[in-house]
Design brief:
Elements: H1 4-17, E1 21-23, H2 48-51, E2 61-69, E3 90-99, H3 104-118, E4 126-131, H4 143-150, E5 158-161, H5 163-166, E6 167-169, E7 174-185, E8 206-219, E9 225-238, H6 239-246, H7 259-268, H8 277-298, H9 307-325, H10 333-344, H11 350-353, H12 355-384, H13 391-401, H14 405-414, H15 421-438, E10 453-454, E11 461-473, E12 476-481, E13 483-484, E14 499-501, E15 508-517, E16 520-527, E17 535-539, H16 542-566, E18 572-577, E19 582-587, H17 594-609, E20 614-620, H18 621-626, E21 640-646, E22 650-653, E23 669-675, E24 680-686, H19 688-725, E25 728-731, E26 736-742, H20 746-759, E27 764-771, E28 774-781, H21 783-787, H22 792-800, E29 805-809, E30 813-818, H23 824-839
Parallel strand pairs: 1-2, 4-5, 10-13, 26-27
Antiparallel strand pairs: 2-3, 3-9, 4-7, 6-7, 7-8, 8-9, 11-12, 11-17, 12-16, 14-15, 14-17, 15-16, 18-19, 19-24, 20-21, 21-22, 23-24, 25-26, 27-28, 28-30, 29-30
Helix pairs in contact: 7-10, 8-9, 8-10, 8-12, 9-12, 10-12, 13-15, 16-17, 22-23
The structure holds adenosine-5'-triphosphate and magnesium ion.
Adenosine-5'-triphosphate is lined by residues 70, 77, 86-88, 91, 93, 208-211, 236-238, 240-241.
């Protein structure tokens, strides 16, 4: 066992032999009912319901290799990539799991056997950590684990670590237990040399390779522990870390699967890998991020400004930034992603299946970022023309134009200008605070007062008054308006954006969020100089509202189209309607085929171009049912409901804002389709202006690709010509040409025999080539000679004897292959005399 591929397979079959059921990796996107992390971070996570006893496990012994991404959220290793030798963002986690079956002894036995006998690690280099105990939990050190380890390790190599390191719990309460980690000692030369150095030290001499979790307690609200009726084992070993120690490398980035990525970069970048710490870091970050980006896109994630899409965007942009340090101009990462596919595509077929999408999305994001950078650099020049760069400038470049602060710093340094990092950080913090308040559903409602009338279905611009006001501090306040055009978040549609303004005083406040309070609403603003009783103009900019409406109506059309194409089992499972895009989750057991996806997209566009009127009306719920309006399962509706009807097409209960007819949706383009846990899929799409921009971009890319292809063809032609120049003619006397060429075979060799026959006006061509220790022959005979009795197959077979091989083909074109390059000259002679004899 040596390669990553052997390790992956070796691990699974080892545990299979030990009675475990092999399961393939679950999606990196957690199931919809697990909002605890943005991505799957460990092998046990997709099996949580089994561990928590909520469901009967498939078997009491299970083994997996699980894809994981540790970025965004609590488990965030993104910023450590390139900084340490042992952290990746995307990783594969090898795991074995026991549900009420074997416990500590069994887990330790298996780990020891696998590491020493299969990975063939020197036992002297292995250490184990165990839980040292914790007074608050009322637990002493894990003696059972110590005794168990003592069967393999001397007591000095079993070390106790505190609760923070070696006690696992999924949440504040519930199943939990001590863990035991296995460390690999990479040797004194890799250590910090401090007397306290040992497992857990951050110098990376002792590398944590495998974590064994012993789930044995239930933690109650009051902090007391009771033993679980069923004890479980959850283990996780990073495949890359295991490969690193097995292959004797100093970092995860030097293992077999990473090497081709570094080599690809090495061919294009300057300076070389290893020439400086900075260069090494850049190579590593780029290689890592090519992997993470590939796997995220393969899971249906598209770059965006929030959640998983934001992680993807950051990863791509970070790689581009590091690329610039190596003189790489974007787009380049999308090509490196193809090297990732070559390495991992056989283990993860999704990389093959979504190959085109990976290239396209990564490339588009790289280009978008390049444009951002170019624009940022221009703006930067304008700013520095005044001789200084203030933190506000840096913040504006960053916040409004997406220009990274790091680059502002770098460019400033090049010109000998000072930047005030502290002040910039403060501005960033303020911004974060503002968006934190605005995001999500947890804006605390503090304002009370009379009901605010929502008039946003008809109007986006109203003159009204502030009915109630509550100061929230820091320039934010909450208000109720007499009449409000602002749509409060609900029914999948996000809160409107906009502002209120006192036209006399000019005082103005930006809407952070409109919160729904049954049939009332509370509005949170940022701004000064407004108070209860003030007359204000309240505005939702049409540039925000219109695309939101287009997306909402498109969501209804998509819902119906999915049911038409896939079947009536499709149910809406969630949606998010925003100004920039829409997201629609629905129940369906498998991925859409490319044909289904296309039909859905076409159906929606057909309804758009048929221009169906859209109208909304209030009606008793019974009547809505009678009309066959689609309702959300499990949702509570009142007696009177609002129905949104797309005439001649669909009816759906909905409180959202909609366009007046489907043509206003404009083009509808699906961005991605992917899984969101078992039995549910997610489609993301754009409409109207966003869709047009995307189509435009795609067309431009297609045009560029076409130009590139023309270039490649031209080059191939030139190279073909050069290759022909490598032909060494052996015998050109008469009308039979005998020639040897360098290292080509197959169709290229056959094509070349045609070219030579025409160029030399020959009636027969005998072509030979040696490639990688094998000999290849082609016999190409003019039809006139075939008629005269020459059979290319017979000639090839006779010649093949001299090269210790065999041949076949058609009377005018035959091939032979053999394993004796030394016999080529003889083979040519035999071939020539065979032709001479046959033509008489
Ligand atoms: P570390 O302290 O080194 O960050 P961890 O405590 O976060 O590790 P666990 O959460 O216990 O690690 O994960 C189990 C195993 O997964 C680890 O023993 C290691 O082999 C691997 N692993 C964890 N994080 C990473 C990462 N960022 N990159 C590669 N492998 C990892
Ligand atoms: Mg960690």
């Amino acid at each position: 066992m040596r390669t990553s591929t052997e390790l992956r397979e070796g691990f699974l079959s080892f545990f299979e032999e030990k009675g475990h059921v092999r399961r393939s990796s679950a999606s990196i996107i957690p199931p919809a009912d697990d909002p605890t992390t943005l991505f799957i971070v460990a092998g046990m996570q997709p099996m949580k319901r089994w561990f928590l006893g909520l469901e009967q496990p498939q078997s009491n012994r299970v083994t997996t290799v699980q894809k994981a991404v540790r970025a965004g959220g609590k488990q965030n290793d993104l910023d450590d990539v390139g900084l340490t030798n042992r952290h990746l963002c995307f990783l594969e986690m090898l795991g074995n799991f026991s549900f009420g079956d074997y416990f500590k002894d069994g887990a330790i036995d298996y780990a020891w056997e696998f590491m020493t006998e299969h990975m063939r690690l020197e036992p002297e280099r292995l250490w184990a950590s165990v839980f040292a105990g914790d007074p608050e939990l009322g637990l002493g050190e894990d003696e059972v684990a110590i005794t168990s380890w003592e069967r393999y390790l001397p007591r000095e190599r079993i070390v106790g670590l505190p609760r923070s390191e070696n006690f696992w719990q999924a949440a504040d309460t519930g199943p939990c237990g001590p863990c035991s980690e296995i460390y690999y000692d990479r040797g004194e030369e890799d250590g910090c040399g401090r007397p306290t150095c040992g497992p857990g030290c951050d110098c990376e001499r002792y590398l944590e390779v495998w974590n064994l979790v012993f789930m044995e307690f239930d933690l109650a609200d009051d902090g007391t522990l009771t033993p679980l009726p069923q004890q479980n084992i959850d283990t996780g070993m990073g495949l890359e870390r295991a490969a690193m120690v097995m292959q004797g490398e100093d970092s995860l980035f030097d293992i077999d699967t990473f090497r081709p990525l570094l080599a690809w970069l090495g061919d294009r970048a300057e300076p070389a890998y290893g020439s400086s710490a900075d260069a090494t870091k850049a190579y590593r970050v780029i290689a890592e991020h090519a992997r993470t980006a590939s796997f995220l896109v393969a899971e249906g994630v598209a770059p965006s400004n929030e959640g998983r899409g934001y992680v993807l965007r950051r990863v791509i942009r970070r790689a581009v930034q590091f690329g610039r340090r190596l003189g790489l101009e974007p787009p380049f990462l999308f090509e490196l992603a193809d090297v990732v596919r070559e390495q991992m595509g056989s283990a993860y077929p999704e990389l093959e299946e979504r190959r085109g999408e990976i290239a396209q999305l990564v490339r588009a994001e790289e280009k978008r970022f390049r444009e951002t950078l170019e624009r940022g650099e221009r703006l930067f020049e304008e700013v520095v023309a005044k001789g200084e760069i203030t933190p506000e400038d840096g913040f504006r470049l960053h916040d409004t134009y997406g220009f990274p602060w790091e680059l502002t710093k770098e460019l400033a340094a090049e010109r000998g200008l000072e930047v005030n990092e502290e002040e910039f950080t403060r501005l960033m913090e303020e911004q974060r605070e503002r968006s934190r308040q605005g995001a999500g559903f947890d804006v605390e409602v503090r304002v009370t007062g009379p009901r605010s009338e929502f008039v946003g279905y008809e109007r986006t611009d109203v003159l009204t008054a502030i009915l109630a006001y509550a100061d929230l501090g820091d320039g934010t306040f909450q208000a109720k308006l007499e009449q409000s055009p602002f749509y409060p978040e609900g029914g999948g549609q996000v809160s409107d954006a906009g502002y209120i303004e006192n036209e006399e005083t000019g005082a103005r406040a930006e809407l952070i969020k409109a919160t729904r309070l049954e049939d009332d609403q509370a509005l949170t603003f940022q701004g000064e100089g407004l108070a209860e009783g003030a007359r204000v103009r309240a505005v939702v900019p049409w540039s925000v509202r219109f695309p939101t409406m287009a997306n909402h109506t498109a969501t209804h059309v998509l819902h119906k189209a999915l049911r038409d194409v896939l079947g009536e089992h499709v149910r809406q499972a969630g949606s998010a309607v925003r100004p920039d895009k829409l997201r629609f989750d629905f129940t369906h057991p498998q991925a859409l085929t490319p044909e289904e996806r296309e039909r859905v997209e076409q159906d929606v566009n057909r309804i758009v171009f048929e221009n169906h009127p859209v109208r909304a009306f209030i009606t008793p719920i019974e009547e809505a049912r009678h009309l066959g309006a689609m309702m959300l399962f499990g949702e509570k509706y009142g007696e009177e409901v609002r129905v949104v009807e797309i005439e001649g097409y669909s009816r759906e209960l909905c409180g959202g804002t909609h366009v007046r007819s489907t043509a206003e949706i404009g083009p509808f383009v699906i961005l991605s389709e992917g899984s969101v846990g078992s039995g549910a899929r997610r489609i993301e799409a754009v409409t109207a202006g966003e869709a047009f921009a995307l189509l435009h971009e795609r067309a431009r890319e297609a045009e560029e690709l076409r130009a590139e292809l023309v270039e490649i063809r031209k080059q191939a032609k030139r190279e073909g010509g050069e290759r022909a120049a490598d032909v060494v003619y052996r015998d050109e006397s008469g009308d039979v040409v005998v020639a040897e060429v360098k290292a080509i075979k197959g169709s290229a060799l056959r094509d070349l025999s045609d070219q030579i026959r025409q160029a030399k006006n020959a009636r027969a061509v005998l072509l030979g080539s040696v490639d990688d220790g094998r000999v290849y022959l082609v016999v190409n005979v003019d039809p006139s000679l075939v008629e005269a009795g020459v059979d290319a197959v017979a000639v090839a077979r006779a010649a093949a004897e001299k090269i210790e091989g065999g041949g076949g083909g058609r009377p005018n074109l035959a091939e032979a292959g053999g394993k004796n390059p030394a016999g080529l000259a003889d083979a040519f002679e035999v071939g020539k005399s065979e032709i001479a004899a046959a033509r008489g």
